Amino acid sequence: MHVFMKSLFRPIDIASLVFFRIIFAVLGFMDVLSSYVYYHLEKDAFNPEKFQFYYYGFAWVRVFADPWMTLFFITLLLLAIFIGLGFWYRGSCILFFLGFTYLFLLEKANYLNHGYLFCWICFVMIFVPAHKAFSLDVWRKKVIATDLIPYWPLFLLQFLMGIVYFFGGLAKINEDWLRAVPLSSWLPSRASTPLIGCLLEMPETAYFMAYGGVLFDLMIIPLLLFRQTRLWAFGLALFFHLTNAMIFNIGIFPYLSIGLTALFFTPDFPRRIVDKSRPLIAALGQRLGSFNVFIPTTRAPLYQATTPSPPTTGFIKTAILLFVFLHVLIPLRHHLFAGPVSWTEEGHRYAWRMMLRAKTGSGLFVVEDLDSGQKEKIKPSDYLWSKQERKLYTHPDMILQFAHYLQKKYKAMGKKVAIYADITVQLNDHPKQYYIDPAQDLTLVQWHFFQSATWIRPADF
Hints:
four-stranded antiparallel sheet; 18 helices
């Protein structure tokens, strides 16, 4: 441990960190832009007049009314550009982290693992010196340029990618996944995919992808750590993530994973790529002639990395240990709850349980007036847009939140009510069954972070 902690401060080339700063900014811009166009403009999901599912502990996070919401998106897009250019880097990273995390927290139905991962990367980018080379901050002389940095900023990004791979692989070791479920039902429906569509119809493909996914997730980091296997491992990662991008609609995640995986090469790899491509660029410049392409012929001298003082070093070591401990502990919390996590959803989020189950549900809520005894059936589709409704049926915490929302709505009308959920759910290829105890008045239930919900019906498989 002592040797490892000491290695966190060994000097490395800043080039790979600069490379990732640009990748991070481009992907952040794309993700924010897609959220603005799809969720805000097309679906009107960020409307303060509409219902939003909130994360427990963050019920106070609320949507702005336009034009403030649109101004927020524009600001976030500008901050992503600033980060990519290395302009006012530290302030831009802080504001982008706050803004992106706010966007993530606005609607629980939109939860994606890559969104959660990106929040943590935004946080890490605040502290890493990714602007100390090839940036406008250097050009403006706001920071001192350097080619060498300590290893720990790169380690934090490598560690995050490693955690995603490792726990993603562990989660796949379950009975359904090893039966190639739900891949065996997903892949044939994507037979129209260019180039590989005919393969997706074959039953063997589902098994190949299921077992290959387990092996890839668990073996990729060890293969990346050794120089002899690193290039082959990265080629495998490219194939894996680009294939997933072709088959599934998973946003920026494949490209983010490729960018993070590339950080396992030696830290000077972007500089070496540029050096090797210089003759080609020079030849192209000669052909273009009049464009007068400038190609530097000598490499800038390396500046020495600054050695932090012992108190600073101790603080950084402690912060890194807490960071590592937190990210190892959170994905394990589902062991605190009874029942299959894919059924109860307790401990499912933030645990890198990705693309593991096909889960569908349907039903309604029954509102009973406790004074008159009259009952009314409520269809969630009357209050929610399509994605919210789809997620509601398969997530007990959302079912409870919606029941409490209905309770407040009827209370505002002067009525005291009991609310019951009549919902059935099918997980993978198992039989459909009742999901919530139909005799449980949900107005009497409170959500607990570390206590199993007894009102969720146990899985009958």
